[in-house]
Specification:
By secondary structure, the chain is of the alpha+beta class. It contains two helices and eight strands, in the order βββαββββαβ. α1 packs antiparallel against α2. The chain is globular. The chain starts with a strand and ends in a 10-residue tail after the last strand.
Amino acid sequence: MRLTGRALRLTVFVGEGDMWHHRPLATEIVHRAHAAGLAGASVFRGLEGFGASSIVHTTRLLSMSQDLPVAVLIVDDEPRVRAFLPQLDELVSEGLVIIDEVEVIRYTGRTAAR
């Protein structure tokens, strides 16, 4: 798959401890994005952060390190990203979902080994 030019970046901020049917929520989002045929998804674990609860979660305090912030980033063209949004409505009960316009400079898949 090749993707260049205008695209959307979908970022989903959730907690590391957030679950969907006994599975980490971030993992469920990535697997659903893959099943939907989106160009790619990555999960990034934060070192420190807070959200609507105003509780700061950090790796520096052992008692609070169990629910660190997690960001799932997905980039694809606008129609595909917008078509994926209803799945997030189902999955994300607490968190933040944002969309940014981005310009993809280079995105190419690996070539098959010969």
